[in-house]
Structures are given as C-alpha cells and as structure tokens.
Amino acid sequence: MTRTDLRLIRTRLAVLAAVLITLWSYAAYVSSQQAVDLLRVRALADTLGQPIDRLILGLQTERRITAETVAGAGQPTPALVGARAGTDRAAAEVREFTKGRDLRLLSAGSVRDRAGELVRRLDGLGTTRSQVDTGRLDQAAAVEGYDEVIDVAFRVYGPEWGAYESGLAADTRAVIALARARELLAREDTLVSAALTGAGLDVDGRLRLAALVSNQRYARTEAAAGLPAGGQGEHQRLAAGPEFAGLLALEDRLLAQTGTANALAGLTLPDWRAAADAALGALQALVTSTARSSVERATPGAAVLVARTGAVVGLGLIVVLVLLLSWATTVRRLTDELAGPDAEPPAPERDTPAPTPGAERELFLRLTRRNQVLLREQLSLLDGMQRRERSGEETSELFQLDHLTTRIRRNVEKLIALAGATPARRWRRPVPLLDVARGAVAEVPDYHRVLIAPHWPWSLAGPAVTDVIHLLAELIENALAYSGADTTVRVSGEHRPQGCAVLVIDDGPGLDAAALAEANHLLGNPPADGPPTGASGWYAVAVLAGRCGAHVSLRPSQRGGTAAIVLLPAQLVTVSDTGRPPATTAPHTPHPPARTGADLPDPSGDGALPTRVRQTGPIGPEHGRTSLDTVELPVAKTARRHQ
Q1: CATH fold of 431-640, please?
Q2: Residue 414 has pLDDT above 80, yes or no
C-alpha cells in the first residue's frame, strides 16, 4: 500500500464518519424530542401550574370581597385583608418561578416571558387596592382591574403546555378550559354579590348578568366534553346533583326577572352565597381531581418514553463510537505498516490517486454498503417510533433495532479481522459451544429460519470465540441466502477424533461438482492478494478459519443442499459434560434475540436464541454428537414469522 492509497482510505472513512454522525444526530433529535416535551410539561405543572392555580383562586376571592366592600361603601374588612394576604402568598410563588433557572425549562422561554408580564401586573395591584381603600375607585373600575390580571394569569398557559401531542396534553387543555369556565362563574358571583350588598342592578348590569350566565354554562359544557371519560361522568353527576341545583334555580329566576326594574326581588345574599360557593367548590374539586388522575395515567407511559429514548440514543452513540474507534485503529495500523522498515518507498505524485486494488475494493465496498443499508433501516425504525403517538409494536421494533446493531458490529469486527487486527471484543475463559452457535445466529438476517441442536457437550477456548462466531455467521448467512424462504438451516455438532465439527446444513439447490471443488480449494488456500471476484464470502470464511486454527470444507447434504463442516481442533475444544440431554424436553418456538448483541448469554441461563427441540423421542444422542433429528423437524411458516 502506498501513501496515496492510505490518503484515499482516510478520506473515504472521514466522509463515512461524517455521514454516520449526521444520521445519529438526527435519530437522537427525533427520538428525544418527545421526551423533552414531556419533561417540560411536567416541570411547568410542578413549578408554575399549581402557583398560578392558587393565584387565580385568590384573585377571584379578593375581587368579590372588594366589589362587596365598594358596593357597601364601607372600609376594608378582615375578610378583605385576609383575601389580600392569600393573593400575596400565591404571587410570591410566581415571582420565585421567574427568578429560577430550571434546566428542564430551557425551551420554555415564552412561558417565562408571560409569567414576567403577570408579575408586572401583580406589582400594580397595590395601586388598585389603595384607590379602593380611599374611595377613589368605583366598583366597575375595581372589578375590571382584577379581571385584567386574571386574564393575564390564564394567558401563561400556552402551547408549551401541550407541544407533545399525547393524552396528557389533551387532558391539560381540557382542565384549563374547565378552569376558565369556573372564572366566568366567579365573575357572575362577583356581579350578583355586589348587587345584593347594595349596588343593585341597572340595565347594563342586567344585560351583563344574562351574558355571563349564558357564557359560563356553554363554556362549562364544552370544557366537560374534552375531559377524559371519568371527568365527564363526574361533571354530569355534579350538574344533576345538589351542588348545582341551587345555583341553576337562582340563575333561572334571575334570568326571568332581568327585564324588570327589580331583578333581585326575593333573593338574599346568604341564599346566593350558599348556592354559588357550593358550585364553585365543586368545579374546583373537579379541576383538581382531573389534573391529578391525568398525571397518574400518564406516568407509566412517560417512564416507557424516557427509557426508550435513553436506549435509542445511548445505543446509537455506542455504535457510532465503536465504528469510529475501529476505523481509527485500522488507519493507525496501516500508517504504522507504511512507516515500517520494509515499507514501500513513496510513490511519485500523480494527478489522479491510485485506485484500491480490485479485490480489496470489492470487499470494502460490500461491507460499507451493508452498513449503509443497516443504518438506513435503523433510522427508519426510529422515525416510525417518533411519528406514532401510541404503538403496541414498540417492543418488537426495539428487538429489530438491537438485531440491526448486532449485524453492524459483525461487519465492523470482520473488517478488523480481515485487516489483520484483533477485535476488541474477546473472551479469556472457555465458552459453551452452544452459546457460540447461538451468538452466530444472532448476527444474521432471517435468524428465525435457523434451528440449533439443543445439546452440545463442548466448550470453546475464549481467544477463538469471536472468530468462530463470525465464521459460523458467514456460513449460516450464505446457507439462508441460497435456500428457499420456506426452508430451514440446521446447525449441529459432531465428535471427531481430532476435536469436534460444527455442521451448517441447508436445503437449497446445492453446488455442482466443479463449483464445490473450487469453493473447497479457496477455503483451504485463500489467496494472499485478497478475494477473487464474486467469492468474498468464502474468502472471509477462510481467513477467519486460519486465524483461529479451524478447517472448513463443503460437501453435498443428504437432502440435496450443501453441508458446511467446520472442524475445530482438540486444542480449541474441551468436553464439558456427558452429552446426553434430558429424557423429555418441551417445544420452544423461535423468538427474537434478547440483548445478544452485547455479549454471549450467561451459560447458566436460556440463551434467548432460536432453537427447536422435539417433544418426544429417544432418551438422547450418542455420546459426542448432537441430535440432528431434533433440528430437522419441519416448522410452519407462521411459527417462524417474527412476532
């Protein structure tokens, strides 16, 4: 390899790294957007929603008592002093929010601006109070001042409280609408209470009363229609119950008398207070209970959303780092080789860089294109998960995402091995050969078509595990590709005097004698200058076998397909048990691999890879041989379909 070749490889890897980082960044953004929106809504509800609710209630009470005081031409009463103190305590909480810097609210700047406007209006409330106390403000102006502050408080609730379209966002909007309906009832209460205290109702007052009654009834009905099923039922019960019976009767009486000069005839302040307080209290209890139940219902979904986002973003970051580190290691090794004592002298500069040799070029392009396809599938999965509001397929898609990542890792580790380096993933202690076979199955597409014999009495030396996994994965993937979609590929083991053999058998059309001889020659004598055209798979198998000391050969199978035999020498395998399975075993349906992408499964547990054992049969196979008839049972297509 010349320095020009090395520069070309560096450039291509840099471009591919930029594309990979861009894809991961986009995937991380779209998958985390929902979680960020949800966290913002929860933070707003905790830090601002409850203080705003208490502030509005305090302002409504203070407005009514102020109107009664002005109408009665009296001095501030203890009730008014207490109402003002309650409003000031709630206002202090809102002021604290505008001073804080909660990191969860970095994307809620407009909410903070509206809260700041509310604080400025609250600062001017002292002037209104002073003018009321000195008699310089009439009832209409005083009530209008409180109305404006309450309107500003409601405007704090904006689109940021429901940017993530979910059940929680819809419930939040319905609760806010119900609170606005309660405000209309509170304004009606203020008008009637002041009139009964001594102000009376003129023509404009009677028209305003009729409008308030009609508007609050309509707004309450519309808000209740948006509540969840439980909230709608509770509202219907309240509307038909004693909480609203007295108020509705008094409202109908007032509406019937609005055309008369004395619309309040026969109505006393205690009667009105009892009816209005009961209805206002029932509405506030409904607002509070609906908000609490909505949060309780959304909590499990929120936990799943945050966990899914963490898994997607974290897994993607791990894949990106592994690939970048692997490429950096490969480039560093090539640079060291080029700078060694036997390095080729620098080639003269030319206008056009020297191309990569044809065989090596085919191998690198094949691996790179596979990675691009797998990454595109991974991104499509992430985009689909982000667009769907609710889905029962999330678990299945996460399994697919894990499987795609496992296959990407296989291509990267194979590239490192073919370059002459050692992948970082290694084992020091022996690993059960059954787990090695299962790990290989987890690295291929259509893994549900692979049947593994259930009992393997051997363990494989740790340093050879990675190479044997990739070697078997190459053979299994080749068998799947060249056999029908309605057939199975069977993997089993046999005892041999010089060690043991792993058999990969398919039911495809098989190879003719010439092709079989050519493939066996390539497996036994891989060319030093790279794979011949169209045979990169066999070349990879041969290189991996040479690295770990295994020998691979092909022969026709008894059912017309091809059998690949991987002979593992005695120095790599040890007999771990008697080789006899239990007397009876239960059927096991193939299912997706569960986290096999990280490491081999624990030898003491279920490997969670596709296996199939028969329900009845002989007590067990001969010593040193896995039972082939346990894997050759026909499997229905519906049983193999990914669940």
Answers
A1: Heat Shock Protein 90 (3.30.565)
A2: no
